[in-house]
Amino acid sequence: MRIAISAFIFTTEPGKRFAGVGRNMARVLEEIVRKDRGVQYDIFVNRNVELSPEWDACNWIHWHRIEVKGVAHRLYWEHFQVGREAKKLGCDLVHSLFANLPFGCKLPMTTLVHDAFPRTHPQWYTPRNRLILDWMTATGCRLATKVFTVSEYSKKELSTAYGVPAEKITVCYNGPGNDVSQLTEEEMSVIEREGLPPLDVPFVFTVSTLEPRKNLVGLIEAFAAVPDVKLYIAGAKGWLNSELAGVVEASPARDRIVFLGYVSDQQLNLLLNKCKLFALVSYVEGFGIPVLEAMIAGAPVVTSRTSSLPEVAGEWAYYCDPENVNSISEALANALGNETELSRMAAGGKEFATRFTWEASVDHLHEVFRLTVGR
Prior knowledge:
Rossmann fold, alpha/beta, seven-stranded parallel sheet, 42% helix
């Protein structure tokens, strides 16, 4: 079986690849390189992508480095040229790592669509971005022979919002976005801590882009009622976040709230290992990779009882209603108020998280590839 993969949005530029979509792309490609599944791949990427020697030398991959001259040129390749090249190369199927598929392609096609947010929550986007993402999602779902998504929640939302038949959608769960693990004290001692605040004090930790659906406003307002701990917030700047600065300034806990900005993979792992509690109280998540990463690192979790998050955390999280600040405060207080229970939840979460791996995800991807092309 020979698969063409459209990966033009994949990037190795620091700070951009680690949002949920980018991390999914990086991890899927990494797993394809890691394990020989008896498949040949033609993977189309932007020439600017920096491939490691291991990736470049992989025997079952032919990398096609395309000089992409702006957005219009990228769209031309995604929507037209990839299909033509795949046909000439004798590929059996075209797979896109993110929605965009070639028009007029006679080969079977599959794509990954993370969520239905452009249609279910349009207020979270600028008008232009919403129109673009909505069109990409609708078109990808229409052209694809099979659509992959990352949770049962997203499958239901895509089916309802975009009219995709449920039997056309396959759930392929994510694994962790970064190489998180439970670290020994010796391992933690050698990680570079430049730019990090003190980690020998009790702190609640969260990581996210600063965008409305992550509900950082709700978390910060709820945190004011939780004494004796700090709140550390890591993540790159998002959009529509002007409200956040005012909320922090008005908070009685403002001296206990620290924005870390972008942190390295190693620093993220260290923060997850050192935190008293990890919190992600988003209104909606297509999957919720940070919750999974926290559980793998052995951090107890407070998260929302909404969307896909209960699929990821199971019974091993302190749940809250993200629409209710008091509910968030109560979940934080309940978690921090019982050390024995906190340890039990952390251990259970670590065990539960072992079911989510990139190997299992990409194995499932290939099962569907084979069924789709009849091999």
